[in-house]
Amino acid sequence: MPDAPVLLSLRGLRKTFDTQEAVSGIDLDVYAGEFLTLLGPSGCGKTTTLRIIAGLEMPTAGSVHLDGQDITRLAPEKRAVNTVFQNYALFPHMNVYKNIAYGLTMRNTPRKEIADKVAEMLDLVQLTGYEKRMPSQLSGGQRQRVAIARSLVLSPKLLLLDEPLGALDLQLRRSMQQELKRMQQKLGITFIYITHDQEEALTMSDRIALMRLGRFVQLDSPKGLYERPQTAFAASFIGETNLIRARAEAVKEDEVLLDVSGFNLPCLDSDWITPGEELLLSLRAERLHLSNSPVNAECWVSGELVESHYAGGERSSTIRLPDGQLLRARATTEGETEPQLGSTVFCHWNKEAGVLVRDDREEG
Predict the structure, then answer these.
(1) 3-state secondary structure of 279
(2) Closest to 50 measured CA to CA, from 99, 6, 86, 19
(3) pTM to 2 decimals?
(4) Could you say which of 22, 39, 58, 113 would form a disulfide bridge with 201 (CB–CB 3.0 to 4.6 Å)?
(5) How far apart are the C-alpha atoms of 352 and 98, rounded to whole Å?
(6) How far apart (Å, rounded) are the C-alpha atoms in residues 5 and 166?
């Protein structure tokens, strides 16, 4: 996406409600044709950021530029931006056709052009033949598709989606994730999507902006955010990870030698680490492998197996290290030998799987 032109720029964006700062001076460039997700826990500032872009909130400080134009103080209806909300916001007294056509009708678009564009949108959201149905006659997923079609029919430069799938059941939600991505790729319209669902963000996004306390913690590709988190918060918010207390015993040219519960382990180097520093080793649960006997591996520890849960194709295990730290491991059950609780197990992983991070979990 960096090869594409910048469509939206946020600079020094702040928003304060009374004495509480909801957005704390963020900068962001969004590229044309990109699917960018704002991800984070409730209250992190993602919806406030979206509302500022839409013009529904005025920032306390900073600017919003769309396609090179400063739209910071522009009224919502004058921005080439549309928003899809979780509650659909369809007109209950209008049928599907009139709901989708509403924006075009308000612009005094010729009737033939309206009919052509509505037909195109109905085909896009796979609702051809539903023109005369009322919102009350539609399922939740169908109502959401109508809301999306109503926003897309105006050919916005930017579509904002505020947890649009939050009210749907899990199966329908996953189906709609695929549909939304398909529509976005077909139309080439830039999407900014809000969710607190990590799986949804990983599945749909070109890039993810992980937010916390009104700031961006990490802006990265889904793979970059998952594989190389920059902080303990980022590591723990996405997926299941072990955050293992460690001390940097020695910093070499290309690796760090760690002390983890009395075991000496190598880890890839990070230039911010100093000898003697206390830090955390982030290790994904599925990258931690278990054995009943010692293994020839660069990175390994041993401990007591204290929990083991069978879940069909996967087993979740908990191991207690000598210093009391607990590690979680997830592995396939294919061809497994039934583990014995209380036994000593050896945990090993590839050096590249461990990522060193500082503990920022208590900040704010």
Answers:
(1) strand
(2) 86
(3) 0.90
(4) 39
(5) 56
(6) 31
